[in-house]
Design a protein that fits this description.
This protein is an alpha+beta fold. The chain is built from nine helices and five strands.
Length: about 210
């Protein structure tokens, strides 16, 4: 029986897959593990009553495991690993936190209105650290095989590219060659192509935060 998965619908287009990177992380995990699932799109500006009754916090993504809706992409992907162990996507502990600060530094830089606040340098430092790690241990975070850490990071790197280019005309420096090769590898995976939001929906999702 297909797992029910509730994720964010696109802003202003409730029948189209939305731009939530945490929802995409769950969908990537399901795709890579070849688990059957039924996609339920949630308009986060008008959440349905049944959804709020089942999931009072109203957060996405949520997956229905044995009649219970479970939130939090960390918990969901961990549960999927237990229930569907093949192929194994566990990231070795020594690599599990690689790239984990990139999303936070990206959001700070994206929302920054002060060119001298150090947010660009903080993001660059995290991207360079990832590039160095990949140079030593690549092509993926844990070596030759894609793992959970890659599936967590891939949607965030896609958002970083789309949002920073649109709102700040900023791109990741070309000299970070291992980073760029890694991103190409991720984007070439069928699972990522199938689950990523259209660029215009990523931009629409970030616009209220950037213009706040």
């Amino acid at each position: 029986m297909a797992l029910e998965v509730a994720v964010k619908a696109a802003v202003g287009a409730p029948k189209i897959l939305g731009d939530c990177p945490f929802s995409q992380r769950v969908l990537l995990t399901l795709e890579e593990k070849k688990v059957d699932y039924k996609l339920i799109l949630i308009d986060v500006s008008n959440k349905p009553k049944w959804f709020l009754e089942a999931n009072p916090e109203g957060k996405v993504p949520v997956v229905k495991f044995e009649d219970k809706w479970v939130p939090d992409s960390d918990v969901i992907t961990g549960t999927l690993e237990e229930k569907f162990p093949e192929p194994c996507l566990k990231t070795p502990p020594e690599s599990a936190s690689v790239g984990s600060k990139i999303f936070g530094t990206f959001v700070t830089f994206l929302k920054s209105k002060d060119a001298n606040d150090g947010s660009e340098q903080a993001l660059l430092a995290e991207l360079k650290a990832l590039d160095e790690h990949l140079k030593a241990h690549g092509p993926y975070i844990a070596g030759e095989k894609v793992t959970a850490a890659d599936l967590s990071l891939a949607p965030k790197l896609y958002h970083l590219d789309v949002a920073l280019e649109h709102f700040k005309k900023w791109t990741v420096p070309a000299e970070l060659t291992h980073y760029h090769n890694y991103k190409k590898l991720l984007l070439s995976r069928e699972s990522l192509e199938k689950t990523k939001a259209a660029k215009e929906h990523v931009i629409a999702g970030w616009a209220p935060k950037v213009n706040a």
